[in-house]
Every structure is written in structure tokens, then in C-alpha cells.
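Hi team,

Filling in the usual template for the complex we talked about on Friday. All components are listed, including any nucleic acid strands or ligand strings, so the model treats them as one assembly.

SUBMITTER: L.P.
PURPOSE: interface mapping
COMPONENTS: two
RESIDUES: 724
SEQUENCES:
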Amino acid sequence: MTAADFKPVRLAIVGCGAHTEYAHLPAAIRSHLIELTALVDRDLERAALLKRKYGCSAVTANRLEAVVDFADAVVIVTPNHTHKPLAEVALRHGIHVFVQKPMSTNYSDALALCELARAKGLIIAVGFQGRHFACVKLMKRLIEEGFFGKITGFDCEFGVRGGYSSVSGYNLSRDQAGGGILVTAGTHYLDRMLYWFGEPTKVEFADDSYGGVEGSCKGRMQFVGGLEGSFFFSKSIALKNKFLIQTERYVVELPASETERLTLFPRGSPGIRMEIGGCAGNAGIDYSQHYHQVELEDFARCIRTGSRPVVDGMEGSRSVRLSDALYACRTQLPEPWVWYRQPTQRAAVA
Amino acid sequence: MTRIAVVGASGFVGSALCERLFFEGMAFTPLARGTNNAARISRLGIPIQRLDLVQRETIADKLAGHDVVVNCAYDFAGLGDGFDNLLHTVKRLRTIKFIHLSSTSIYGLEPKPDCITEKGQPDPQGWDYAAAKLRQDEAAFRLHRNGIPTYILCPGNIVGPYSVFTIGLAEMLRAGPMPLVDGGGNPSNLTHVDNLVEAILAAIHCNGGAGERYFVTETRPVAWRKVFEDHARVLGIRPEFVDVTSAQVRPFLAAKRRVQFKHRAKVLISPDFRRLARQLPVVGALYGLAGSTFHRLSEKSQNRIRERLQWPISLRQSGEALPMNSRFVTAQIRAHYHSPNKLATQLGWKPPLNHEAGMETIAEWFKFAGLTSG
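RESULT (copied from the run log):
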């Protein structure tokens, strides 16, 4: 299908929070494959504000049902606990669904959505923009081709203090977010682990929650063939923010912000650092600026061609299953510096 | 049970206070402007109330029903209106107690000898930040005179797990070498965050002593050299020092003071600000007038204006220039120890951590955060 033949997909965006404001909405407006037709938010003023901000001609509404006649597809960027009910509404009205990660707050809901989409013959895609990064695809390809030799281990750290404030504050509620840092940011990295290394056979997990959503968590995983890996995610500590993958021939470094290249340190050659990049993907696209556009365009093309999205519902549900498994074996993350919670308090000797 | 409102709960001290109140089983409400930095309190499962101190009309609803208000909010840009709005509301609600976090910085970058006790006369010495903190103190004292028992706690640089100061110090020690001012013998006046929280608890529980300022520092002076050596030890690195004198550091203090006014002026003349402001018709016209007037001035006059607002242009020497303007260097010039004796005797403060115990908490946290070597 040539660009001239492509009939733009009429798109409604549901949820007009910070992520829509800075990511999905500008991406949809930029794309010639998409015609933005509706902005939906429970807070109608918020939808109108974004419409004015970007000067778009979309209709605004406070319910998805009000715009189903204007849309072929919907992007759901709402608090996590609403993903499933909103996706169901869309699918039942014959509308294709793109849902921001995590797909749902539990695995059974994710499977139910996949089944509904299959029964209706509709596409469900999940927003993991990192999967479109050239370096992430290249890593997968090189693992499959045996370029690195045996993969022996990995460490993944992602931690930032602050970030943006969600408009709804959903991320402070376990009921609404489905968890803390593991599902809000960590799920991006869980998805990559699954994509590259497959399903773990054993997991361990600890977080710092005392009834609320965890701010920091650590975990370990084992995979078939003896591969072991660890992760550390935090919203209260700035961490190294990278994957470090130990392989037979190289140590591979992949910073969280990198979209194009892998950095390799050959074993047995100290002081040598190599950067490699691939030519796969959408040539001419600046990934660092436009990956939200890339994933929306993948979704739009799949709608028109009937092909499978890079991250479809079943693929997107894998990280939900993994986070369910991690939470199921949760233990309390030790904080030995917190003297007033220890069995024996330190003496007041100052 | 006393109900405590923690204003600025998502900040470093606010988070530490909320954690302690939570594990002590005390009744409290965390209040924060945004949710982006609230990870340490959102894990507790206590609902966080949004509070923007600039929105005066919304404050009373959030503070009503609380006996004690602890102000941990730190917002240099908003040190004016927001704080006044908070005090206005506390006064109107007849809150039983108000606890305000000030700073030993009110004595300036190079304090005078009388600052060893709280009787010393604060003197910001032209430092904008200190002047703003002192204005807040004065407003808090007025609140006390208006019938709301008020406690003003003045910590030094606050260290401990999650402390930006502690993390910055670790980075500086790693980068090395650390300039050691006058042999590193001056008192560091650091405050472990857990000891500061204990001081807040002492102020919450005490029956007297309101309307006073209290220093919160180590109960005995700890010299900078020891601070650096101990941090290096728990980081697993060998510290490198370069001896410098206070006379070498003093010019950098002057620059630190001066930059405050110029920073604001620079915002006004920055290209981004001018571009946006010019889009407003009135501003655009005024800007055009100012621009044409400026260009009619002699080159010498133009340069004099530029010199006042934009010069000197800051260029770093390539190579191994010492970071003399770092806060870890300029802080070493403070020669006097701010004794917390008054806090201990009048409010019954019993700091749970001495320097060594405090370092143990930092060591454990460094390990957790992956900051140690090896």
C-alpha cells in the first residue's frame, strides 16, 4: 500500500493527562496516517484545553461512547485500572484498541481483552514504545543469530527521582495503578527481558511497600539455559539507568535513553569500546523524538493491512503475567539504615 | 491523638518525617504540591493531599482539623507568597502549634562569632537564599506573637539516606581531589536527617519553648576532614585532598552572593523569555522601545549595561581546575559551631544518632543504592 493509497485511521484518544499532552497527542497530530477525530476525558475542560493547546479540530467528550461514531480506533491513556473497561467498550463497538502499558492490572483481564479482540476480529496493540527502538530490535536479532555467544547474565537498573506529576494522581494508588514502580516504569524493562530472553523459570522479588505503591523494588530471575539476571527499579533514587548484559564474547551496555546503538566491550580486550547500530526499522525516522509516532503508525498500518502489531495484546500481556508473578512472591525489601524499625534500636549516644 | 499536617511532605525532610510518623503510629496528613516526588510516602498507603501554597483559598480546607502544622516546604522560587498564605491560614485556623524549618544559613556564608548560640544576630550577608529564609523566620515570629506557638528549627546541611547533599558529596569525593580548607578543621555543622526529625518530634511533644529559634546540628563539632574521610571510607575509596586556604575560597563566596541577583536579571534578558514576552502586544511595544533606546546608546554605555547583567562570562579552565565554587568547599569556610544545646535543654531533644551511627546509616544506604565501590 503506498502512502497515497493509505486512508488515514480516524483516531480517538481517551485520557487527556500528561502522557497524552506530551506524547500521544503530538504524535497523532504529526502523523499523516492518522486523523485525530476525538479527545475524551472525564474532565471535559481538560480535553478542551488540550484541543486548544494543539489547535486540533477533534471533537471533545467526557465518555468514550459519545465518540464511537467518529473513530476507527482508540488510544487509551488513562489510569491503569480503567484500561480493561474502556478497551471492552471500544471493542464491543467494533473499534480497534491501542492501550498504553501496562495492558491491565492483572493477567486474567489482559487475556480477556485478547479474547474479545480475537472474537471481534479487531486489533489490540500495547504501548511499549521501546520495542520500536532500533537498538532493542538489534539486540534481539543478534541474540538469535548467536553473535554474542552464550548470554550468561544481565543487570537492569532504572531509577529517577521525580519525573512528571500525573494529572489524576492515579500512580499513588495501588487500586488504580495496579502497583508501583514495577508496573509504571519497570514494565518497560520487563517487556524487554521477555522479548530478548524469554520466560523466566524462577523469580524472586522484594519491594519497599508498606501498604501503598512501592517506590523501589529489586528482583532476580532465572531462565532456561542457566541465564540469571537482576533488576532494580526506583522512583526515589537516581540509578545507572541501563541494561548491562554479560555474554560469552562481550559485555553489552544499553542505556535506558539509547534508541539506536548498542555498546560492546569485547572480553579479553580491555580498553576497547565498540558501538554498533542496525539499519532495521523505519528508515528516516528520528527515534529519539518520534517513537510514539512510530508505534501509533505501526498500529495504523496494521489496521489497514490486517498485519500484527509489533506489540499485540498477547505480547503485551506477557509483562502483566510476569509482574503478577513477581508480586505473588513479594518479600519486604530490607532497609537496614532505618534504625527505628529494627528489632534493637541503636543507642542514643550522641 | 495529636493530628499533624506535614506541608512539603514529598521533599527530603518531609518524606523522612512522614516515614517516622507512620512507624510511630502517629496521626498525620502528608500534603504535597505534586505527586512526582512522592515515592517514599506513597509506599506507606497514606493518602497524599495535594496542596499548592500559592492557592490561598484552598489551604484552610486541607489544614482544618490538624493540631500541629510542620512546614517542610522548600521552594526557593516561592519563598514569598506561598509561605505568607500558609501563615495566614494557620493563624486563621488557630492551629495549636506551628513548626517551621529554617536554616543556619541565616547567619550568612561566613558567620560571625556570636552565631555559636541562637542569641547571635542573623546576618544573611547579601546572600539571597539566606535573606529569604530570614524573612520567613521573621514572619514565623510574628505568627507566634499573634498567639500561635511557633518553633523555628535551624539545621545545617542535611545528610543521611536520600540526601542530595550526601549524594553530591559522594560524587565529589569520587571525582577528587577534594579541596580541604585550612586543613579541614572547621566544624561541619551537618545535621543527620533522622536527628532533625527527632527535633521536629521534640517540638511536637514539648509543652514550652515556643517563640524561639533552635539550632539542630551534631551535639559535638565534627570537622570537615573527618566528614570527608568517613564518607570516603563507607564509599570504599581513598580520599584525595588538596590543601587550600580560606583566603583562596573567599572570592568564590562573593561570587556566590552576587550571582543571586544576576541570575534573576539574566532570566529577564534571556532569549527565550524575550521571545515569549514580545508576543504580548504591550510588552512587544515596550521591548521595541527599550531596544531602540539601547541601540542609540554609545557602545561604551551598551557595554556597561551588558557588563552589569551578563558579565563575566563563566568559562571553566580545561584540565584539572579545582572546584573551588562547590558548596562542599565554600561551606568549609564557616569557622563556628552552631551548638544545639538549647534544643536539648529546652525541648528535651535526644538525637538518636551520633556521627558514627549516622555514618552507619549512610553506609547501609550507599550499599542499597549501589554507590559503594566493589
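MY TAKE: The radius of gyration of chain A is 21 Å. Chain A has a mean pLDDT of 91.

Thanks, L.
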